[in-house]
Amino acid sequence: MEKKADTPIYWSAVECEEWNLILAATDTGLCYVGSPGQPLDAIAEWAGRRWPARLLQRDDGKLQPYAEELAGFLQGKQRSFAMPLDLQGTPFQMAVWRALCGIPYGETLSYSELAEQLQRPSAVRAVGTAIGANPVLITVPCHRVIGKDGALTGYRGGLDMKAKLLRLERDVLSAEGGRMHA
């Protein structure tokens, strides 16, 4: 679906605990979550590639509901997101991102398991590429995908962020008496 050039992409910088993230949304929903400490140039570059005719406009108030929901997750107060998303991708990317949203909180899947789940067992690399193109870190939980051997592998936010998110989920489940499944 083509976006109107005169409709801005709204952005805000969000700080929560040790997390410092840039969020962006359209009038439709959240469209970008950056890596911790990422410079503003990164979102400008992303928006220029994705929606070249649209301007970035800072609007902390418009992004506040998204920031609050994300903060609730990062503080271990909630396990999922209800916020609307505005994801733009190929049909394959969209299928991968939907599958990521189906990985339960505190659980992980390997890239090959995800490819099998999508009934594309030979598309492991393509699955990895689609995961790497996920514009909304944390909310579309690509951090829950690990190597076949259980190792943490590639993550746009960096392996430190991936490890922190998995540890957060494990700790929340542990505190609640739940179990983490691999």
UniProtKB/TrEMBL annotation:
Name the domain of life this protein comes from.
Bacteria
PROSITE patterns, per database record? MGMT (PS00374)
Q: What is this enzyme's catalytic activity, as reactions?
A: a 4-O-methyl-thymidine in DNA + L-cysteinyl-[protein] = a thymidine in DNA + S-methyl-L-cysteinyl-[protein]; a 6-O-methyl-2'-deoxyguanosine in DNA + L-cysteinyl-[protein] = S-methyl-L-cysteinyl-[protein] + a 2'-deoxyguanosine in DNA
Q: Which residues form the Methylguanine DNA methyltransferase ribonuclease-like domain?
A: 9-87
Alphabetical keyword list:
DNA damage, DNA repair, Methyltransferase, Transferase
Keyword DNA repair attributed:
yes
The UniProt entry, under SUPFAM superfamilies, shows:
Methylated DNA-protein cysteine methyltransferase domain, Methylated DNA-protein cysteine methyltransferase, C-terminal domain
UniProt keyword DNA repair present: yes
User: What InterPro entries does the record point to?
Assistant: MethylDNA_cys_MeTrfase_AS (IPR001497), MethylDNA_cys_MeTrfase_DNA-bd (IPR014048), MethylDNA_cys_MeTrfase_DNAb (IPR036217), MethylG_MeTrfase_N (IPR008332), MGMT_N_sf (IPR036631), WH-like_DNA-bd_sf (IPR036388)
Q: Which residues form the Methylated-DNA-[protein]-cysteine S-methyltransferase DNA binding domain?
A: 91-170
Q: Which PANTHER family match?
A: METHYLATED-DNA--PROTEIN-CYSTEINE METHYLTRANSFERASE, METHYLATED-DNA--PROTEIN-CYSTEINE METHYLTRANSFERASE, INDUCIBLE
The protein's name: Methylated-DNA--[protein]-cysteine S-methyltransferase
What is the source species? Paenibacillus melissococcoides
Classification of source organism? Bacteria, Bacillati, Bacillota, Bacilli, Bacillales
